[in-house]
Amino acid sequence: MSAARVLFVVGLGNHGPRYAATRHNAGRIVLESLASRLQAPWTAHGKFDQVVLSAASVRQLLRNDGVAIPTKVGGKPATPPTPKKRKSKGSAAALTTSNAEDSASDGEVSANSAPPVSTSDLDVPQPAMPTPAPSPVPRAPTARRQLVEPVEVPLDDVEIRLVRLRGYMNESGDKLRQLLRANNIPVAQFQTGTTTVPFLFLHDELDKPVGSIVYKASGSPAGHNGMRSIQGFVQSSALPRLRIGVDRPTDRADVADYVLKPFTPSERETVDSQVAPATWAHIVAWAEGMVTGA
């Protein structure tokens, strides 16, 4: 039996119950909700906690919940197109294009339902009936365009480890160091490109509204202290990440104070019911991309 491929999803935030529900911990919140749904326990490992999941189990959870999985991380959900419909004449009902005849009236009378006219009782000579034209040779049915289901990426041997770093946000790089050591992952691997880095980072994003998720394959930390700390440690900007919108304060409140406060009840409802499952779907899409190299 081949060894499982291990992928890490790191939810950035501040450790401890005081910060657990704050906006700055958005990345951790969606991971904790995933672990809770799958009833998977967190285990402590020095400067980090982790949950070990089968990638296939996460995908199955999403299917059970009716959550569409994007064809690629950061892409749109892979939902099949809806067949086009057209309205019948004189009727509000729509007919599908597959083997449906156009209706001439509300009763949808077909061309073969009217009775034939008889000429046997007429006294006038009857003209010769034209010889009916030979019936055309039936054509082979044209194959209709089929909706091709995408080939499912095998995830049975893919392991996803959800990670919470123990410490403050601006110490994330130092805490990541121990995670790498514990898993024999050289720092140099981060300098070879995003397609070979088995890490996906989740963090809050001030410049996006609550309810939005943005994927970024690499680039600057854009003012995020956690990503800045990690980039300083690995000396690379090739860090795939999902940025979870928390919005900016509408008043003149200090940004640091704003992100260290809990979500409002309506915001938390959005995070739990929409953002979390959508993020899980992008995690699965990322895992599939890591397997296929896409």
From TrEMBL:
<feature type="compositionally biased region" description="Pro residues">
    <location>
        <begin position="127"/>
        <end position="139"/>
    </location>
</feature>
<dbReference type="InterPro" id="IPR018171">
    <property type="entry name" value="Pept_tRNA_hydro_CS"/>
</dbReference>
<dbReference type="InterPro" id="IPR036416">
    <property type="entry name" value="Pept_tRNA_hydro_sf"/>
</dbReference>
<dbReference type="InterPro" id="IPR001328">
    <property type="entry name" value="Pept_tRNA_hydro"/>
</dbReference>
<dbReference type="GO" id="GO:0004045">
    <property type="term" value="F:peptidyl-tRNA hydrolase activity"/>
</dbReference>
<feature type="compositionally biased region" description="Polar residues">
    <location>
        <begin position="110"/>
        <end position="121"/>
    </location>
</feature>
<keyword id="KW-0820">tRNA-binding</keyword>
<feature type="region of interest" description="Disordered">
    <location>
        <begin position="69"/>
        <end position="145"/>
    </location>
</feature>
<dbReference type="Pfam" id="PF01195">
    <property type="entry name" value="Pept_tRNA_hydro"/>
</dbReference>
<comment type="similarity">
    <text>Belongs to the PTH family.</text>
</comment>
<dbReference type="GO" id="GO:0000049">
    <property type="term" value="F:tRNA binding"/>
</dbReference>
<keyword id="KW-0694">RNA-binding</keyword>
<protein>
    <recommendedName>
        <fullName>peptidyl-tRNA hydrolase</fullName>
        <ecNumber>3.1.1.29</ecNumber>
    </recommendedName>
</protein>
<keyword id="KW-0378">Hydrolase</keyword>
